[in-house]
Amino acid sequence: MTANPLIRDILWPLTLAIFAVAGSMVFACMTPFVAVATVAAVTMDVRRGALTAMGCWLLNQASGYCLSGYPVDTYSIGWGAALGGGTMLSYLVARRMTGGEGATLVRTAIAAVAAYVAYEGALYLVALAFGGLHTFTADIVLGLGLNNAVWLAALLAAHSVLSSTAPRMFGRRLRLA
């Protein structure tokens, strides 16, 4: 029995979005945008992956402004937009480096590192232009990198379990090598 294409096309992106928003709320706004973008790049087609990465960013912003009391000012909105741009850049880097769906685990890990460097590099350039360099200490950048690495492992494990138990609904698993 084949899964309804609409369910199959929505279920994994929705699962990723729930993980990303819930994780952000639990772990003090440390949303793993690079991990989500990388997993989207290797588990979905180009269109669904890009929409999922942006959808996770948008849900994060909505929950931040509506539930967490983000200040509604030019600086906050500008940084939110920069995070969205960084998320898309990290998605594109991960997609390019892995070749997309069906990538190996090793290529995915290497692509995630490159995507994180691109993401942080883009945000650093924004901070140079608009302020916020104080958030680029080694401890903060490494902490965010570790957060993304842990989330990448968790999201890939979740995808592996879900795709093993319901491949018609969640697609095929990543190859180890």
Structure description:
The chain crosses the membrane at residues 12-42, 49-70, 76-94, 106-130, 150-170. Helix 1 (5-26) runs parallel beside helix 3, helix 2 runs antiparallel to helix 3 (46-66) and helix 2 packs parallel to helix 6. The protein has one domain (5-170). The chain is built from seven helices and no strands. It has helices at 5-26, 33-43, 46-66, 74-98, 105-130, 138-165, 167-170.
User: Number of domains in the coordinates?
Assistant: 1
Low-confidence region ranges: none
N/C terminus separation: 30 Å
β-strand number = 0
Q: Specify Rg, calculated over alpha carbons.
A: 16 Å
Main beta sheet strand tally, sense and closure: none
Shape: globular
Structural class: mainly alpha
Strand residues, percent: under 5%
Transmembrane segments: 12-42, 49-70, 76-94, 106-130, 150-170
Keywords: Membrane, Transmembrane, Transmembrane helix
Write a concise keyword list for the protein shown above:
mainly alpha, globular, transmembrane helix, 7 helices, single chain, transmembrane, 177 residues
